[in-house]
Amino acid sequence: MKTHFFFKTARCVTNVVLMVLLMTSCSSDDDTNTVPEPTNTIYDYLLNDSDYSEFSEAVNFTGFEAQLRDMSMDYTVLVPTNDAFDDYYAEHEFESDEAKIEALNIILRQHIFQNEMIDYDDADEGISTQNMNGEDMSFYIEGVTMVIDRNETFATLALETDIEVDNGIIHIVRDVISAN
Questions:
Q1: How far is CA 127 from each of CA 122, 136, 147, 148, rounded to the nearest angstrom?
Q2: How far is CA 111 from CA 73, 119, 152, in A?
Q3: Which of 19, 54, 86, 97 is 20 to 30 A from 3 via CA?
Q4: So where are the chain's domains?
Q5: Would you report the helix, strand and coil content of the chain in percent, each value rounded to 5?
Q6: Domain 42-117+159-173: which topology?
């Protein structure tokens, strides 16, 4: 009889210990090793497409990486093709790395619109806004093509529009837009 009582008590104690272990192993403090959700920011998009490696290199060279990874703001970014950058570099020489960084900083700010998400439908209605250099840029549709016009002095065509990413929208453009 005592043996039976001993086994019953041991089984109860074992069950209680197992329940306590199971409950503590499921506590919320285990969440410290969670894997962060992958992002698809403007910067991520640029890194994953070699057709825009020149723009991506300019972003890295000038330190715009953090800005294009920023998830707290929305951006519209006009991304020139590698061919557009090749054409630009063929026409412009830089005396030093500092001069190149200064020119690329201006160029990147020509192509970035902070706190704006301008898509094809907005351009269809016609919209004007300022880029990060403070220059007015107009977006409108000609035929079926989006046109981006800088103060009626220079216009480029969007080759591809409305590439949506987590922190904004990208339009692929035919030309590098330099400052006035």
A1: 6, 10, 11, 10
A2: 16, 14, 16
A3: 19
A4: 42-117+159-173
A5: 45, 25, 30
A6: FAS1 domain (2.30.180)
Q: What is the SS3 assignment for 156? A: strand
Please enumerate in sequence order all residues whose Cβ is within 8 A of that of 77, keeping only pairs 6 or more positions apart, or say none: 42, 68, 111, 112, 113, 168, 169, 170, 171
According to DSSP, residue 3 is labeled H
The owner of tokens 């969007």 is: 158
For 104-154, the pLDDT digits (tens) are: 999 999 999 999 899 999 999 999 999 999 999 999 999 999 999 988 888
Q: In terms of pLDDT, which residue wins out, 4 or 40?
A: 40
Token duo for residue 159: 């080759």
Which pair of tokens denotes residue 145?
A: 């093509």
What's this model's pTM, rounded to 2 decimal places? 0.78
How many residues make up the chain in this entry?
A: 180
40 pLDDT band, cuts 50/70/90, is: very high
The H or E element containing residue 140 is strand 136-142
